[in-house]
Each structure stands twice: as C-alpha cells, then as structure tokens.
C-alpha cells in the first residue's frame, strides 16, 4: 500500500459491476468481513449510479490505506454535474431531486466511517468516503495541531507514480516533503522513493540542508524536484525550501503567499546557495503543495465556503478543476487547526 489512488472515469453503466467487484475484492484482501465488504458494495453502487444518473459521469479515486493499526479504503468521487443546491436536505433519507427513493447520500453516510461532501451550483460535487474494516471506528475531531490529506494519481497507463509525499512529526513541529521524479513511470518513482527514504532518515531540521542531503542520496537516479516545508511550534514559523516546480502556497483567509523555489534538479544540479523562506505559522492557515501534474492558476477564494471544509475536500476540489492528465499528479493540503 502507498499514497497513490487508482482512478476510474465513469461514463457508462457497464463499468459499475467491474468497479464494484474490484473494490469488493480489495476489501476482502484487507481483512474486511463479508458483511463489511457487502456494505462497501452498497456504497460503491450508490456513488457510481449517482454519477451516471445525475452528473453524466465523473471520476472515482480509491486506495487501500493502513491507518493507526487498522485497514481502510479511501474514496473520492468527483463530478462536473449541476451541483446540489441544498446538501443538508439531500442527506435526509426519502428526499430526492428525481423520482427515485432518495436514500443514496444518507445510505453512504450511514455505512461509512467518514463522509464529507462539497458542492457548488453549475460546478459539480466532490465526495470523500472512508470505509474501515470495522464499522464502529470513529475519528475524533482535532482541537489543535494540523490535519492533512494527500492525493496522488499515476500518469494514465502507468502502474507506479513518479510523485510522492511524506510528513514527519516531532515534539517541536512537523516537516512536509513533496517531490516529483523527472518524467513518469518506474525511473521517476525510484527517484522520489530514494528521496523520501533520505528524508525519513535525516536528523537535519533545516529544509535547505535536508535538500542537500537528498541531493547526495539520489545522484544515481533520474533526479527530481521537491520542496520541504517545516514548522517550528516554539518559534511559530514555517521554514520552506525547494528546488524545481513544486507549487507551494500558504493561505491566510483572503490572502495567500506563494513560495518561489530555486531552479535546478535535485540529484543533478542544485544552487550552491540555498536559503529557506521564513513565514509566520498561525491557526486557520491552509498550506497547499502540488506537483506540475496540476495547473497553477487556481484560487481558493473562487470556491464558495471552501475554507471551512476538511483537507481532503479542499485537495480534491483543486484537483478536479486543475489536473492536466499529461503527467503524474499529487496534491497535499495541510490545514492548521
């Protein structure tokens, strides 16, 4: 299991049975009981049939994930339909915008361990679903610190992703790594995996020095671009350094700050002088980092009430609008609470 999501474009009802079977088998492999796997089937059937009936198709992203001692399946459902005017009303069993029974969204929420939905009129809808091996697992709401979500998608036709991310926690704060191996496929994946290995092992805390260590560790690979963002709780600062075109922004309400990385390729040529950018670390900030598999001309303020949504909804909303489809794509969103 890794950070990559499998992706299916759903534009024909004939695909539903295939996707249901694939995710059902995945659930059983993860140790889900037959009953829990059957509940997973219901969720997938509702999601995919809704895409066909109401949105003229969409995209389903899913992955297996091991989280704090238990297995789970994470799903994002994206569409470019007409949107839902009143999400709360649609969540009530028995309500429908058509002549169907209207149990869909309520059923999905009831059978999931976590369910989030975001929609705008004439923009579409994104949904996030987490299905754990045990139906009674509850995730406590964070009161402080940060939450994050990452979505990685392979270049179409590739079996591995040349992008990657990793987060390290410490008593003093946390560090975020987002990298993109040159090109795509196995060689790009090898480069980013070597970089993540070096990132995990280093005892350095200064992002610029971590970049130098990674540079030495990946010299025999194809090379990569990467940015490291480090938080120091005591100093209340972000410390950011990167080489290459990882897009990095910190949002503070209506304002945002974009970090400009150095030119170069880690593993091949990096500047002799690398200095980190220091920015204030505050509550309610949103950090967004992504590879060039996504376009950069997006603005969170264009999404109605998006700032109050969780990290996964923010990440999937940006991805839905901006994925290029010509390379691996990875986005990570960290929300300071």
- Count the beta strands: 15
Sheet-strand content, in percent, reads 25-35%
Sequence of secondary-structure elements: EHHEEHHEEEEEHHEEEEEEHE
The average pLDDT is 92
Largest sheet: 10 strands, mixed
Strand order of the largest sheet: 4-5-3-2-1-6-15-14-11-12
Count every helix, treating DSSP H or I runs of 4 or more residues as helices.
7
Globally, the shape reads globular
- Supply Rg: 20 Å
Descriptive notes:
With 337 residues, the chain is α+β, with helices and mostly antiparallel strands. It is 26% helix and 33% strand. It has seven helices and 15 strands. The chain has helices spanning 14-29, 34-55, 87-90, 104-111, 186-201, 207-217, 311-322; strands at residues 4-10, 58-67, 70-79, 114-120, 124-132, 146-153, 163-169, 173-181, 224-232, 237-243, 247-252, 255-259, 277-280, 286-290, 329-336. The strands form two sheets. The chain has a ten-stranded mixed beta sheet with strand order 4-5-3-2-1-6-15-14-11-12, with helices on both faces. A hairpin with a 2-residue loop joins strand 2 and strand 3 (70-79). Helix 1 (14-29) packs antiparallel against helix 2 and helix 2 runs antiparallel to helix 4. The longest helix is centred in the N-terminal third of the chain and has 22 residues, at 34-55. The radius of gyration is 20 Å and the shape is globular. Residues 98-102 have low confidence and may be disordered.
């Amino acid at each position: 299991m890794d950070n990559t999501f499998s992706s299916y474009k759903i534009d024909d009802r004939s695909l539903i049975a295939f996707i249901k079977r694939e995710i059902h088998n995945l659930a059983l492999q993860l140790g889900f009981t037959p009953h829990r796997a059957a509940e997973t089937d219901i969720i997938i059937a509702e999601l995919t049939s809704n895409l066909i009936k109401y949105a003229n198709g969409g995209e389903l992203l899913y992955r297996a994930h091991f989280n704090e001692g238990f297995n789970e399946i994470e799903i994002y459902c994206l569409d470019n339909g007409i949107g839902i005017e009143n999400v709360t009303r649609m969540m009530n069993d028995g309500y429908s915008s058509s002549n169907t029974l209207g149990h869909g969204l309520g059923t999905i929420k009831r059978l999931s361990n976590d369910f989030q939905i975001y929609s705008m009129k004439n923009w579409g809808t994104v949904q996030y679903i987490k299905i754990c091996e045990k139906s009674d697992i509850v995730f406590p709401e964070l009161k402080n610190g940060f939450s994050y979500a990452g979505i990685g998608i392979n270049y179409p036709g590739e079996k591995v992703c040349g992008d990657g991310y990793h987060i390290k926690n410490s008593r003093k704060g946390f560090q975020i790594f987002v990298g993109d191996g040159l090109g795509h496929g196995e060689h790009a994946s090898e480069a980013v995996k070597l970089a993540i290995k070096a990132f995990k092992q280093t005892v350095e805390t200064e992002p610029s020095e971590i970049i130098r260590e990674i540079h030495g560790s990946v010299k025999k690979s194809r090379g990569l671009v990467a940015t490291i963002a480090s938080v120091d709780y005591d100093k209340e600062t972000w410390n950011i350094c990167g080489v290459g075109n990882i897009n990095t922004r910190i949002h503070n309400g209506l304002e945002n700050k974009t970090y400009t990385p150095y030119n170069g390729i880690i593993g091949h040529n990096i500047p002799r002088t690398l200095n980190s950018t220091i920015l204030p670390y505050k509550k309610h900030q949103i950090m967004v980092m992504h590879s060039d598999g996504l376009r950069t001309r997006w603005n969170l303020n264009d999404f109605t009430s998006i700032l109050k949504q969780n990290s996964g909804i923010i990440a999937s909303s940006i991805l839905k609008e901006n994925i290029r489809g010509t390379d691996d794509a990875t986005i990570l969103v960290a929300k300071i609470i």
